[in-house]
Design goal:
Elements lengths: L1 E8 L6 H4 L10 H5 L10 H4 L5 E4 L11 H8 L4 E4 L4 H10 L3 E3 L1 H6 L5 E5 L4 E4 L4 E4 L5 H8 L3 H18 L1
Helix pairs in contact: 4-5
């Protein structure tokens, strides 16, 4: 799976309240959450981004609370992925569970500039900066994680497998 978009750069320790401010957590509706994605880090963020764009950040992206609203808001905002030097553990797991691709690469996080055109190959782990003509390496996702992401997250994967079993029973 390849993802392409323009980079939006943030620093270290972007916490879940900056990703989706707690004052908007009166809902779990992804469309409503997306309207406020990254609002406390950049109040105009949602007006500036385009579908498929990529967040690039420093160390410990997604630190703070364990709520899954933060990765949900990023995915619902139609951002294609997040590249960071490192991620908070719970944010990492929540992102994979909802099908949001996240990629760790110190080299990419340090070198990519705001507005750079980025391509991420999730199969190989390669990150290509089209603006600078440079490549960066990240550890590719193992096949089961790629499967979770391609199916839109854990719930969609389970739903798909259960439907397959139900259809299999109807044939026998």
């Amino acid at each position: 799976m390849k993802l392409t978009g323009n980079a939006w750069k943030f620093g270290d320790d972007v916490n879940t309240d900056e990703i989706i401010p707690a004052r908007y957590l009166t809902t779990s509706d992804p469309v409503e959450l997306a309207k406020h994605c990254m609002e406390d880090a950049d109040p105009d963020f949602m007006r500036k981004i385009a579908k498929g764009d990529i967040i690039v950040a420093g160390k410990n992206f997604g630190c703070g609370s364990s709520r899954e609203h933060a990765p949900i808001s990023i995915k619902a905002a139609h951002l294609s992925c997040v590249i960071a030097d490192s991620f908070a553990r719970i944010f990492y797991r929540n992102s994979i569970n909802i099908g949001l691709p996240i990629v760790e690469s110190r080299e990419a996080a340090l070198d990519i500039a705001p507005g750079d055109r980025i391509e991420v190959d999730l199969d190989s782990g390669e990150i290509f900066n089209r603006t600078k003509g440079k490549s960066y390496k990240s550890k590719p996702f193992p096949p089961f994680m790629q499967d979770l992401i391609s199916k839109g997250g854990l719930m969609n994967k389970v739903r798909s497998e259960l439907q397959g079993k139900e259809q299999g029973r109807g044939r026998g």
